[in-house]
Amino acid sequence: MHLTQLLRDPGGILHVRRLRAAGFTSHRIATALSSGAVIRPQRGWIALPGSDPELLQAASEGTILSCVSVTRRLGLWLLEQPEPHFAARSPHAHPQTTAKVHWRAPVRRREPQTLLDPLENALNYIAYCQPPEEAIAIWESALNKRLVTLTALRRYPYVGRAKEILQSVTPFSDSGLESYVGTRLRALGLRFVVQAYLHEHRRDFLIEGWLILEIDGATHTGRQRDLDNAQDWELSINGLGRIRAGYRQVLECWPEVQDAIMRLLSQGRPVVQGGDRLPNGPQHGKNPREK
Asked: What does the alpha-carbon distance between residue 121 and residue 217 come to, in Å, rounded to a whole number?
């Protein structure tokens, strides 16, 4: 195999030790360097020209790509696209960089000569780096995509904020917005089921056994949609047990959404035609993914 072919898979960069383990001699590596086929971003590392810039930065500065940079690469929820985040290779390291560097000890052991932190370590840094709601949303996104499981995470030595997050997250939120809302409903002391199965359809939230809360994603934004949602609230306040909130309303106008929820709950379960109250449901409150 040609040296450049071996480098393509791991982001275009490898440690010299791995190249030698694959059978490449110092002479072959030096020849590739002199021809310009590969470059040396830092002592011990060999890369293709134009390879992954974040991994090149990590190799050049003696760090590991971590935190939100890892979760972004995995396609997990992120409210914003942050600058690259890195982790120090050891508590005694002194990387020369102006980038964001995390210093906490990893909860999962790293493989030698790695440039990309395992997800379990990235989640640990996120617990301390990001605002609480955002951190919970990212953790739940990883669980929902089944990149990790609660059972496995509970076996790692998480402490402090990371342990608190681990005790509260579930794998049932289908979006970061739902994670935000779940955190806020929990803070209000409300009982709710996420992704409740009711009348042959999943509902984003079933609160206190009868109030349905639906969350519209970013594709349902706009002033007109906000007005429609507000009209839904008024209809609900006048007897219907359903409320809908949009992306902007969750992120920027949550007090209005919360006020509508609390008003409805204070009025009690609505009465339907004939004087009968709505049935208990989400099929007895079970989440469709709970066993």
From this structure: 29
